[in-house]
């Protein structure tokens, strides 16, 4: 996932379809983050389930997982 | 008290009020009442309900009067930023109104009326400690409250979670987003995730606690009015 995507539009914000507003790569990124965080929550109970770690977790996840994916792909392709 | 409903209602309010409110203002308002009281409610107060929602105690912090004071303070600190001021007032007020649904209720009309208003839909469970409170809340109509708030958000306000909404309706009215992005050198996708963070947290909190309470710990549901039956009715008065 990159930061390069169509310019944001007010028209799309108000009337866009689910597919237009939430690209597949973004859905995968958030679904994986949700799964990992929920598993951590089930294992640790309220250690991670608080309003500081929760929002920070998804911020860091969405920030660095695409970077790590890109590095991994580059390594696999031998660049 | 309410749990994930506080995280979900901000996005519904954002849909309703649009560019007239700052999302960050709504967030500060929604977190304000519990930020001032929650830790001591769980771990120090002799009567958590009285301390958290009553008088003598800090019950007045969960009120429309305190929302007005917080908004006035925000107006002063932000040098007249209307979107932040309305955001804090609306977020704080919504929190106070949502908290009226449990048996402790809230001093919503403080300082004009010092008694609590309560619908008594589920028992106030902070006297059980944090885990016991989670068990009580997610076994009672509190569970239904969170589920209803989530469904309403996903049906009527789901577009507020999109990048397009964030970039055209949220970010332009609040310079704090640019400041955050510059300060922490965040790419756009991380800033967007930060905006969505409390929805993510609310959703995961709802799902995880429901699984912990019912699938792992085996507590039953009691979805009757004033549930669950095993919690003593702590009162703030």
Keywords:
heterodimer; A: mainly alpha; B: 237 residues; mainly alpha; 0% strand; globular
Please count the helical segments of chain A: 4
Describe the biggest sheet of chain B?
none
**Low-confidence runs of chain B:** none
Q: Which strand-content bin applies to the residues of chain B?
A: under 5%
Quantity of strands of chain B, as a count? 0
Largest sheet of chain A: none
Helical content band of chain A: 55-70%
Structure description:
The complex is a heterodimer of chains A (79) and B (237). Chain A is 70% helix and 0% strand. By secondary structure, chain A is mostly helical. Chain A has a domain at 31-73. In chain A, helix 3 (24-44) crosses helix 4. Chain A starts with 9 loop residues before the first helix and ends with a helix. The two termini of chain B are 16 Å apart. Chain B is globular and about 50 Å long. Chain B has one domain. Chain B is an all-alpha fold. Chain B has 10 helices and no strands. The chains are: A mainly alpha (79), B mainly alpha (237).
Quick structural gist:
With 79 residues, chain A is mainly alpha-helical. Chain A has a domain at 31-73. Chain A has helices at residues 10-15, 18-21, 24-44, 53-76.
How do the strands and helices of this protein lay out in sequence?
The complex is a heterodimer of chains A (79) and B (237).
Chain A: H1 10-15, H2 18-21, H3 24-44, H4 53-76
Helix pairs in contact in A: 3-4
Chain B: H1 4-17, H2 23-43, H3 48-53, H4 64-77, H5 82-99, H6 129-139, H7 141-156, H8 163-170, H9 176-183, H10 188-216
